[in-house]
Amino acid sequence: MKYYLIAGEASGDLHASNLMKSLKAIDPEADFRFFGGDMMSAVGGALVKHYREMAFMGFIPVLLNLRTIFKNMDICEEDISRYRPDVVILIDYPGFNLKIAKFVKEKLSLPVYYYISPKIWAWKKYRIKDIRKYIDKMLCILPFEVDFYKQHHYEVSYVGNPTVDAVAGRDHADETFGSFVTVNHLENKPVIALLAGSRKQEIKDNLPAMLEAASAFPDYQAVIAGAPGIDPDYYKNYTGNYRPKIVFGQTYRLLQQASAALVTSGTATLETALFRVPQTVCYETPVKHIVSFIFKNFFTTKYISLVNLIADRTIVRELFAASFSVQAIKNELNKLLNDREYRDFMLQGYDEVIGSLGKPGASGQAANAIYKSLI
């Protein structure tokens, strides 16, 4: 069969690539064409547009790049029309993908499936109307999403969480601390992992404060998880005089060896929990007091991290907007490193979250659901 996939950022590239592998396992004749990234390209098929040309975050960047965004949509619509796939599979990235879904259903009458639901449960609930109209099958990866959609009279399937798959199937699972620091030319002392985001704006906003806070603990070394698609030289703009080590393509290896982590929101918070690394979520924003007011009064969720969202309670501290400061990060990091009771409480919460996600196999379950519904 012919599959057209659209992923607009690094995490989507990862999860789409694993879905493609699973589809190939049950459909040896699978032919792929996609908007995505290097990981999808490694599986095979035709890359039409790289997500680096699509990932615009925030109101101002989107506004400044509207012409590019509309051009990308035109390219995508024309390409799907020519390719005539058996199914279009959307991976998160709702601002772009829901518009493509509307075009595909209204103009081409092709099946449209969604793998990894947009976070409409946090805000923009009105998008449920478009999902009902244009999405034939929704495959969710967070347990609480099933209840959310049921409340809105839309049937979905929970297929497990692909991050569980990715962690379970990682390389270097048996790597020792000594081997990791030797290979990466690090110091022989405990590690504080810094996961400052996958987008340039996130790195700019969060990394300097993370580094300043981590520097207050000289018995530890701060190591940055380099984001895919970000030039190593970009980090130098925000590392100041600290000269930290940066490791690319080794986020899981880094987390496996870390004593604690400072993490922006997103999938990284869940990845950190799966490695049972105590963490603090750090997310700086402009006009922080206004952002905090909007979040408290207009969002329908109490949390920004997946760990707390899945647990529906506070397991990890979220230093977001008005609560974000270097001193607050230092205080939290001190508790993560030195307060055994605080660490143990967090690790117990992690175990609850891990149990609720289920066993590995999300990509395979999603692929089976897609393939069986098409044959």
Map the helices and strands:
Blueprint: E1 2-7, H1 10-26, E2 31-36, H2 38-43, E3 46-50, H3 59-64, H4 66-83, E4 87-91, H5 94-108, E5 112-115, H6 128-134, E6 137-140, H7 143-151, E7 157-158, H8 162-168, H9 177-183, E8 191-195, H10 200-214, E9 221-226, H11 232-236, E10 245-248, H12 251-257, E11 258-263, H13 267-274, E12 279-283, H14 288-298, H15 306-311, E13 318-320, H16 326-338, H17 340-357, H18 362-374
Parallel strand pairs: 1-2, 1-4, 2-3, 4-5, 5-6, 6-7, 8-9, 8-11, 9-10, 11-12, 12-13
Characterise the protein shown here.
- It is globular, with a radius of gyration of 21 Å.
- Helix 7 links the parallel strand 6 and strand 7 (157-158).
- Helix 1 (10-26) crosses helix 18 (362-374) and helix 10 packs across helix 16 (326-338).
- With 375 residues, it is an alpha/beta fold.
- It has helices at 10-26, 38-43, 59-64, 66-83, 94-108, 128-134, 143-151, 162-168, 177-183, 200-214, 232-236, 251-257, 267-274, 288-298, 306-311, 326-338, 340-357, 362-374, and strands at residues 2-7, 31-36, 46-50, 87-91, 112-115, 137-140, 157-158, 191-195, 221-226, 245-248, 258-263, 279-283, 318-320.
- The chain has two domains: 2-167 and 360-374, Rossmann fold (3-Layer(aba) Sandwich); 170-357, Rossmann fold, CATH 3.40.50.
- The termini are close together.
- It has a seven-stranded parallel sheet, with helices on both faces. A six-stranded parallel sheet has the order 10-9-8-11-12-13, with helices on both faces.
Provide a brief overview of the structure.
With 375 residues, this protein is of the alpha/beta class. It has helices at residues 10-26, 38-43, 59-64, 66-83, 94-108, 128-134, 143-151, 162-168, 177-183, 200-214, 232-236, 251-257, 267-274, 288-298, 306-311, 326-338, 340-357, 362-374; strands spanning 2-7, 31-36, 46-50, 87-91, 112-115, 137-140, 157-158, 191-195, 221-226, 245-248, 258-263, 279-283, 318-320.
